[in-house]
Design brief:
The complex is a heterodimer of chains A (419) and B (480). With 419 residues, chain A is α/β, with parallel strands linked by helices. Chain A contains seven helices and 24 strands. Chain A is globular and about 60 Å long. The N and C termini of chain A lie far apart (60 Å). Chain B has 480 residues and is of the alpha/beta class. In chain B, strand 20 and strand 21 form a beta hairpin. Chain B starts with a strand and ends in a 9-residue tail after the last helix.
């Protein structure tokens, strides 16, 4: 088997918002050859099929945003190669690729993993029943509708009432599919207020809270879903389509195959505030770190990661190491997961396992309080919870792990909601 | 080469003056193997009819994908003999036709004293079945051989010959070779009534009438029903036994090196953990006797039970992502052995009660059935079979080079360098080849069984819509 061997300065895997922003930031500063590998035929990542607005000011849609970011990366001098898949590692900073032009082995001075996230499909959620056609995730639905104009079905149930559930609703409406219900196992929906009103009143779609999918029915094509309600009651809803939304997981295959340690909370690569993984020269950025944040956040990280990669390449970066950052229940995870003393971090992303009413986030190290932050609203599961990052300057490099806990109005009083 | 999927079997409602020599009902792994075996006699006109829209769409598609040695069969049974012979035949056939097989070996792990005490008996049984390579190994050796095993394993029976195989490619290879050798494969044909007419069987089907001099019942779960249609009675009843299975992500593959079989005890057979040739890890099956021959759904209790057992066998496994869950139905009967019986006067063979070993035994069953037919109907002249043209099936196995890894193939056709299904690394070239193959897929599920497309961890999140475009024929097949 012949593989073409060559070298570049920085190899970025994934041309979504994070990867493109990182490539742009590197190429703009003249970091030699910066190459982005994209396995899809078209670069731009998930925003390509997110037709809703909200990708920047003045109502930019996903496809518009994707096109702009690709253009910006190309304009900076970065190479973007589409239809090329990184299939595995041949060395710590060497990747094997497959594309229509053949096999390659590319060695870089630094590698940036920006492989993104995906929704867990029905099987990974262990939803029982038959295996009929008509069972989708939002990602597949949006591509079917927005990229290929495919027919989807006639009556759908959407599982999940987070913002992505609303995106599914809008794709289904565009495909002229009647949406019978949005269901969520949570005690309340997590749509924005406007989306919830639009779903219920604008489109007459009931939002069923405290409801799980007990079974999928139908042979060949889906004929219905059996729902289990909070009180244990089972009902059957006739439908030929069901969309499983949310429940995002990092696409970490390449990271794991490369021996990059994962954070047990996020299941993405463990990184420090400079987006450095445990493997020297390998960085990770975007939704592979935290499934899942908006494109603009991922792009912001990409730009910051570019600075960190430049620091690594010219030797001006901080020394590796630093204390781990841990969360205590009901918090589920935090990203980044390691503090670099003296390196300010733009901000941290967290998730909570249960709804919290106006929680206070408290950051401590070895019993010393580093930071305390009041969150002026409810924190909900599967929704972004952000923590400022300026306190990392106070971290003791030789100290124990940094802990993030939820405090009450006074520290120590638990602020969990009872709902 | 004829494959039909719709329209009447006899054009214009006129029956052909010459009936088929043999009609095989059921295009699962057994029916296709029989059709392939009979097709070695070029003078025979053979029909292979199948109720579903694809071959291997029943029990054959959803099993544990193991090529058995037959070490634990009931000694002296027909099953024991056919599994042993079938293992040899299918191993050779797989090597020749590109069906992925990996001889990873099996360990029957004993988790308590009762199971440990059962091992010597199993070793002896293996000997009675003509399998001499098995041996009992200590707890320490068991742990050394499977470092991720849960605590408490007391020892194991090592069966080095047990292998994993691709059940989809096997059925497809048989069907492909049969069709290329002249067998008429008629899909979507449900047999509704069988009568006798001028010394031939007249089959009334959902696609019209079909006549055949000799009839072979390889109808799997419905073999008892067909027996009653033909004979008016039957000597067995098929009770579908459901097996639910969980397929774990490829990233779990490094956790297990062998097929980890349970030690059968008085409480029945248990749950196994096995690698698959596609690089995943399988956990299952459950065993539930049902009445409904269509009940291929999974249940919450079934899956919970599997996870509980899996956690004991291989604790790290249950932390990995699940790629797929499925359920298959075994054609269990009230009898212990296969129910293969020739009704000579009726020119009819029933191949019933072929349970989980049917994949392994398929080629030996086919040879056995051909022998029964030759004896029952000398007029068919089954002497001197010829070797069919070999088939070379596309490789779905991870232990052998896949097209995306082959510079030579991509150089001749860039479509093999264009990955469409990212999780399974299925290329546009492979999807195209499947769609224009001898036995093309009828559905996206059929395409998955031929290529693995859409069968990976994302289950279509990334590639679902793109694969659908290709399947619906809207993709362009020219070079990029």
């Amino acid at each position: 088997m012949t593989r073409r061997q060559r070298g570049v300065d920085v190899l970025v895997v994934g041309a979504g918002p994070a990867g493109l922003a990182a490539a742009r930031g590197l190429a703009e500063h003249g970091v030699g050859v910066v190459e982005v590998l994209e396995r899809e035929v078209v670069a731009g990542g998930v925003p390509r099929h997110c037709h809703h607005r909200g990708f920047g000011r003045w109502g930019v849609t996903g496809p518009q945003y994707a096109a702009r970011t690709v253009e910006a990366a190309l304009g900076s001098g970065a190479r973007v190669r589409t239809g090329v898949t990184a299939t595995g590692w041949a060395g710590p900073l060497t990747l094997d690729t497959t594309g229509p032009h053949g096999l390659e082995r590319i060695t870089a001075r630094a590698v940036v993993l920006a492989t993104g996230a995906r929704e867990r499909p029905r099987s990974a959620r262990l939803v029982p029943g038959t295996r009929p056609a008509g069972v989708l995730t939002t990602g597949e639905l949006q591509q079917a509708v927005h990229l290929h104009g495919q027919r989807v079905g006639t009556r759908a149930v959407v599982v999940g009432a987070e913002p992505v559930g609303y995106a599914a609703l809008s794709a289904l409406r565009r495909a002229r599919v009647t949406v019978v219900a949005l269901t969520t196992d949570q005690p309340r929906h997590q749509l924005g207020r406007a989306s919830a009103v639009a779903a219920r009143i604008g489109h007459g779609v009931p939002v069923l809270t405290g409801t799980t999918v007990a079974e999928l029915l139908g042979r060949g094509r889906l004929s219905g879903v059996r729902l289990r309600h909070r009180d244990g009651r089972l009902t059957t809803v006739d439908c030929d389509t069901v969309v499983f939304t949310g429940d995002f997981v990092p696409d970490h295959e390449l990271a794991r195959r490369g021996g990059v340690a994962l954070d047990p909370g996020t299941r993405g690569p463990a990184v420090d505030g400079a987006f450095r993984t445990g493997v020297e020269g390998v960085f990770a950025v975007g939704n592979v770190l935290h499934a899942v944040e908006p494109a603009l956040w991922a792009a912001r990280e990409g730009a910051l990661a570019a600075d960190a990669v430049r620091g690594f390449l010219d030797g001006s970066g901080p020394a590796p190491g630093g204390p781990a950052i841990e969360v205590a229940a009901p918090l589920r995870w935090v990203a980044p997961n390691r503090a670099v003393p003296g390196v300010p971090v733009d901000g941290f992303v967290l998730r909570t396992a249960q709804a919290l009413t106006r929680p206070v986030l408290v950051v401590t190290q070895d019993g010393h309080r580093l930071h305390r932050q009041y969150v002026p609203r409810r924190a909900l599961p599967n929704r972004t919870l952000r923590l400022a990052g300026h306190w990392t300057g106070k971290v003791d490099a030789a100290g124990g792990p940094v802990r993030i806990t939820v405090g009450g109005l006074r520290d120590g009083i638990f602020g969990a909601a009872t709902e | 080469m004829t494959v039909t999927t719709k329209g009447p079997l006899s054009p214009k409602g006129q029956l052909s003056p010459r009936p088929y020599d043999v009609a095989v009902v059921g295009a699962g792994v057994v029916g296709t193997a029989i059709a392939r075996e009979l097709a070695r006699h070029p003078h025979l006109r053979i029909a292979l009819v199948e109720a579903s829209g694809d071959v291997g769409d029943g029990t054959s598609k959803a099993n544990t994908a193991i090529l058995h040695t037959g070490f634990d069969a009931v000694p002296g049974s027909l099953e024991s003999r056919l599994v042993r012979e079938g293992q040899r035949l299918l191993s050779a056939y797989a090597a020749e036709s590109g069906i992925p097989v990996e001889t990873v070996g099996a360990l029957l792990v004993a988790w308590d004293d009762e199971q440990l005490d059962a091992l010597p008996g199993l070793l002896e049984k293996a000997g009675h079945n003509g399998y001499d390579a098995a041996r009992i190994i200590s707890a320490d050796e068991t742990r050394a051989r499977e470092p991720h095993l849960g605590p408490g394993a007391l020892g194991a029976l090592d069966v080095p010959g047990e292998s994993i195989i691709c059940p989809w490619t096997t059925t497809l290879a048989y069907a492909t070779q049969a069709v290329r050798s002249g067998v008429d494969l008629h899909l979507n044909v449900r047999v509704e009534k069988v009568s006798s007419e001028d010394g031939a069987h007249l089959l009334d089907t959902s696609r019209g009438a079909l006549r055949a001099r000799f009839l072979v019942n390889a109808a799997g779960l419905n073999a008892d029903v067909l027996d009653r249609l033909v004979l008016g009675s039957g000597d067995f009843t098929v009770t579908p036994r459901r097996g639910q299975l969980i397929v774990f992500d490829k990233l779990a593959r490094d956790l297990v090196r062998h097929i980890l079989l349970p030690v059968p005890t008085a409480l029945g057979k248990g749950v196994l953990v096995a690698p698959t040739v596609y690089g995943n890890v399988l956990l299952g099956p459950t065993a539930e006797d049902l009445d409904d021959k269509t009940a291929t759904g999974t249940t919450a209790d079934g899956l919970d039970g599997l996870l509980t057992k899996g956690r004991r066998i291989l604790p790290a496994l249950v932390d990995e992502e699940v790629t797929a869950v499925y359920a298959g139905l075994r054609a269990a009967t009230e009898h212990d052995d296969y129910r293969i019986r020739c009704h000579e006067g009726r020119r009819y063979v029933t191949v019933g009660g072929i349970r989980s070993t049917g994949l392994t035994a398929s080629m030996a069953i086919a040879a056995h059935v051909a022998g029964l037919i030759a004896e029952a109907d000398p007029g068919l002249d089954l002497k001197d079979p010829v070797e069919p043209l070999p088939v070379h099936m596309p490789n779905l196995g991870e232990a052998f080079p896949r097209p995306y890894q082959r510079a030579d193939l991509i150089a001749t056709d860039p479509a093999y360098g264009t990955i469409v299904c990212h999780c399974e690394r299925v290329t546009r070239g492979e999807i195209r080849d499947a769609l224009i193959s001898t036995v093309p897929p009828a559905s996206l599920e059929g395409l998955r069984r031929r290529t693995r497309a859409r069968g990976g961890r994302c289950q279509g999140f990334y590639c679902g819509a793109a694969v659908r475009v290709l399947h619906e024929g809207r993709g362009e097949w020219g070079p990029e």
